[in-house]
Structures are given as structure tokens and as C-alpha cells.
Amino acid sequence: MELFLHYLSMPYMIQGIEVTLQVTALGLGGGLILGTILAGMQLSRFKLLSSAARIYTVIFRGTPLILQMVFAYDALPHIGIKLPAILAAGLALACNEAPFIAEMLRAGVLGVEKGQILAGQALGMTPGILMRRIIAPQAIRTMIPAFGNEAVSALKNSSLASVIAVQELTLRSTQLASSTFDFFSIFFASGLIYLLLTSAISALQIFLEWLFDLDRTSKQVKLMRFLPWYRAQGIDDPLQDNEPAPDILPDGGVAELPPPRLPPAPIDHAARAAALARNDVAVAVKALRKNYDANIVLDGVDLAVRNGEVIALLGPSGSGKSTLLRCINNLELWNDGTIEVGGRRLGFNHLGKPLSPRMAAQARAEVGVGMVFQQFNLFGHLTAKENIAGPLRWVHGVAPAEAERRALQLLERVGLSHRADALPRHLSGGQQQRVAIARAIAPNPSVLLLDEPTSALDPELVNEVLEVIRRLAVEDGLTMIISTHQLRFASEVADRVVLLAGGAIIEEGPADQVLNHPKNPVAQRFLSAMDAE
Ligand SMILES: Nc1ncnc2c1ncn2[C@@H]1O[C@H](COP(=O)(O)OP(=O)(O)OP(=O)(O)O)[C@@H](O)[C@H]1O
User: Fold this and answer.
1) Between 350 and 225, where is the model more confident?
2) Going by CA atoms, what residue is nearest to atom 1 of ligand 1?
3) Above 50 in pLDDT, residue 250?
4) Which atom of ligand 1 approaches the CA of 325 most closely?
5) Alpha-carbon distance 147 to 102, whole Å?
6) How far is the CA of 323 from the centre of ligand 1 (A)?
7) I need a labelling partner for 420 at 20 to 30 A (CA). Which of 169, 234, 454, 497 fits?
8) Are the C-beta atoms of residues 414 and 433 closer than 8 Å to each other?
9) How confident is the model over 331-335, as a mean pLDDT?
10) Best residue for ligand 1 mutational test, from 319, 371, 375, 498 (most atoms within 8 Å of Cβ)
11) Cα(324)–Cα(320) distance, rounded to whole angstroms?
12) Is 321's C-beta closer than 6 angstroms to any atom of ligand 1?
């Protein structure tokens, strides 16, 4: 026992531990840098880069680390690169770790919901902002366990550096054992040291998982201040996050909605139509054609929407309503035709050439096209307030205090001020959609596109969202195009109903005319089927 303790504290062994840690740190640090570059190449749109990354991965994942170390130490000098043994071992370990780390990074990035990325783009975020603010924070959290495993394996793999005479722990243990013949005590001590080191890594992993856990509450929050997205955590008042979901009222509303106003007065559509006729065109879609391979989804669609007008877009499932909205916001490329929003061709420069993703994002933010999605697409790591304030700061350069004030004001408007610090997953579907609407209107868009905003909601939550949309139409005079299956809502709120089928607009006009007296036989069949539901 005494000998065992002696070996544990022996300076010769401790120096070995230091070298082991150096090789591991070089391997992990270098692996992280190389892996990040490799992941970027793998995710790149350029085939040459992604192919080069794939070839690198095949080579370094498919050959033993021990050979790579020998290569780095013995073969590189032949081309004039002579590295000290520790550096050669660190380099080989880094090159070997890189493909694994790249895969982790790639999986983390691809694991972020596509809808959130689409929402970020719709809000005018450039690829850089999207990566920094939306993708990376969420990807990092999911990568911590895998990175912990990788760190443990790098530490153990560092022992292979003994093959090129790096004086790390395993080599020193072997040397000591061959000179003292006390194999058992020495290797037992060495094994225990490795175990302590890997346990330290596991403890660090658990700590990081705890630190990045968004569901933590109260006193633990002080450490969170070190996180770049600290403001986003919704921990100022942890009690709010833990509030139970509000009770659903018998009439389908929810308990925390603002005090019920007088029943909304019916909209005077004739008066609105007369006023709207004098307004400029906000959205002009001309001869729009869009196909996915052989599937022609939009086949020469023409649509003009005036400022302040509310359009209800109806049509059978798969008729291209979502595709049309995504094209209007330039989130989708199309094959032919033009789309102008506020007189500008979104996504194209004045010569008609497509803009880069970055420029297109800026144009989208300048023109101001808000979008609300069927699946809400709130940013999962940000609180309700930050979902609204964040894009205002990052995309529109609004000062933090002003962005927060606007976010709180809008949350109050949609009846959710007391849930400002709640994470999306702590909100009901209806609440999430109301936050999503507040987020979309925060930058004062000129047009709001709503893609089946109530389809993913339970029936009792539909009304709360429709009420918010109705207020935007009546009180704010916001130009809106709403893809919906809610016929009653369309007839109440829409100035015009547009019915899409077979890639074309088959019927359009005032809601009463289209919904109650359709002329087109396909429209008649569709509407009577909808009525029957
Ligand atoms: N990314 C895509 N790749 C290939 N086909 C697609 C893609 N997106 C949509 N489609 C196809 O385009 C057609 C129109 O889809 P879209 O989602 O626009 O219809 P929709 O009217 O919004 O339907 P729903 O009411 O069910 O949401 C469908 O046939 C669909 O399968």
C-alpha cells in the first residue's frame, strides 16, 4: 500500500501526468479547431469543399491513431517539418479527433429544428446571426455529452504517444515497472490516475450539462451570467416559468387573456373595400410558376394585395398555399414570374440578379415581411420576451432597453405579459402562437404572412389566436395574407378570399361572394366539403 501511495505522488509519475494532459489538450484543442473547419466544409454548399472533407474523414477515421503518430513524428521530417515528440503526438491526436468532433458539430447543427431556421430567415437574420444566436447555442447544449465522451477517449488515446517516446504517463509507468519489477503497484497507481483524470472530465461534463440546462431555476442562476445568452434564460423570476398552464375556459378562451372586451363589432366590409381600393399595392405576384421536380405546384398565379387588405388564402391540402407564402417572403426560389413587396423584388438586385443569402436577409428585413408559421417555430432556447427582443436587437439594431420595452408591450398586447420569461416549451400551443405573432409584428412589418396559424392547435386554443389576428386586422390595419382552413374566420375578417387549387387561383373576391356563392365547380366542391367538416 505504501509503495502504491509512493508511486501516486512520485514526481516522475506526476511529470508523466503533465505530459499526458498536454498531449490531450493539444489533441482536443486542435481537434476542435480542425473539426469546426471540417464541419463547415461538410455543411458547405460547395461540392468541392464537402468532398474534400469527406476524403479527410475517410482517411483519418479509417487508419489507426498509432500509425498517424508515427507518421507525424517520423514521416513529416522528410518534407521538412520536424516537430518535437509532444507536438507530433498532439497533432496526430488532433487530426484523428477532428472527424469525430466534426460529426458531433454537424449533428448538433442539423439537430436544430428546420422551422427555427426558417423563422430566423423570415425575421431577416443573416446566416452569421442565425449561426451565432440560434443554431450554435442550441447545438452546443446537445453536443456536451458527446464531447465529454470524446475528451475521455482522447485522454486514453494519448497513451499511444508512448510509441514515439513521448514521456507521458503510460510510458513512464512502463519504464518504472521495468526498472523496479513492481508491476502491480505501478500499473495499479497508473490506472487509478487515469481513472481520476477521466472522472474529472465526467464531472466537468455533468457540470456543463447542468450549467446549460435551461430548465434550472433560482439560486443556481449566478453562474448563468457567464453564458453569452444569459439574458435569454428567463430566470429573473423563476416562479413565472413554473406557473401551471392556465385553465381553459368553457368558451374556448384561456384564463389569462386580457379582460374580455365587448364582443367584436362586425367588420363593415363594404366601407373597408371602398377605403382599400384607394391604397397602393403592397404585394404583387405576377405569373408565378413553381414546381418541385415534376410536381407543378403554382402554375401562373397572379395576385395583388393592397395596403391594409386582409386576404384569406383557401384551398385543398397540397394546393400550394404555404409554397406561395414562402415564395412571397423569398424563403423559396421559384421558376418563373415576379413577386414585388412594397415595389421591391425581394431576393433580387436592381438588375434582376439573385442576391446572396446575406443580402437577401437584409433586404427581407428592410422591406418588412413578417411571417407566422403553422408550427410556431419559436426559438427553443430563448424566453418569450427574448424571442421578440432578440431579433429586434440583432437584425434591426434596436437598443437593448428599447427592444425589451417593445417586447413587453407586444406581449401585453397578446395577453402574455406575465409569461414574458417563460421558455416556449413551458407555453401552451396557443400561447406559443401568440408569442410568434408578437415576434413577427415587432419590427412593424409592411406585410404579415400567416401560414395556417391555427392548424396545429387544439380546437379550444384556436379562438385566442384568431382573436389576436382579428385585432391586428381591425385595429392596426395590417396587410395580411392568411392561409387558413377556418371558413368562419375568413368570412368575418378577410376583405378578400382567394381560393387556390390545381396550381392556380380558381375563385377570388369578397368573402361572402366566394364562400356563399362560388361559381367554379371545384370551389363549390371544396367549400361544401369544408362546410361538412
Ligand atoms: N420542399 C418541398 N419539396 C418537394 N415538394 C414540396 C416541398 N414543399 C411542398 N411540396 C409539395 O408542394 C405541394 C404544395 O405544398 P404546400 O405545402 O404549399 O400546400 P398547402 O396548400 O400549403 O397544403 P396544406 O394545406 O396541407 O398545408 C405539395 O404537393 C407538396 O408535397
Assistant:
1) 350
2) 292
3) no
4) 18
5) 11
6) 6
7) 454
8) no
9) 90
10) 319
11) 6
12) yes
Does the domain spanning 269-532 belong to CATH 3.40.50.300? yes
How much is the pLDDT for 355? 85
In order of 163, 174, 300, 408, 463, the CA distances from 159 in angstroms are 8, 11, 67, 56, 64
Neighbours of 468 (CB within 10 A): 21
In the predicted structure, residue 266 carries a pLDDT above the cut 80: no
Which is the closest atom of ligand 1 to the Cα of 500? 21
Domain 2-213 identical in fold to domain 269-532: no
Closest residue CA from atom 4 of ligand 1: 292
Average pLDDT (349-356) is 82
CB 484 near ligand 1, within 6 Å: no
pLDDT at residue 241, rounded to an integer: 37
How many A from CA of 284 to the centre of ligand 1?
Answer: 22
Q: Which residue has the cell 417586447?
A: 407
Own/partner pairs, 514-521, CB within 8 angstroms, 24+ separation: 515/487, 515/490, 515/491
Q: Is the CB of 301 under 6 A from ligand 1?
A: no
Q: Return the domain boundaries, the chain.
A: 2-213, 269-532
Residue 236 above 60 pLDDT? no
ipTM of the complex: 0.96
Residue 113 confidence class, pLDDT cut points 50, 70, 90: very high
DSSP string, 167-227: --HHHHHHHHHHHH--HHHHHHHHHHHHHHHHHHHHHHHHHHHHHT-TT--GGGGGGGGGS
Q: Is 297 in the pocket of ligand 1 (CB under 6 A)?
A: yes
Q: Which of 357, 347, 297, 346 is nearest to 324 (CA)?
A: 297
The beta-strand segments (E) located in 349-456 are: 369-372, 447-451
Which atom of ligand 1 has the smallest separation from the CA of 293? 4
Q: What is the pLDDT of residues 46-81, one digit of tens each?
A: 899 999 999 999 999 999 999 999 999 999 999 999
In this structure, the residue with its CA closest to atom 26 of ligand 1 is 317
Mean pLDDT of 172-177: 91
| Burial of 65 per CB tally in 10 Å (0-12, 13-18, 19+) | buried
- In short, whether 322's Cβ falls inside 6 Å of ligand 1 is yes
Q: Are 517 and 472 in contact (CB under 8 A)?
A: no
Mean pLDDT, residues 256-278 taken together: 66
Average pLDDT, the chain: 86
Does the C-beta of 184 come closer than 6 Å to ligand 1?
no
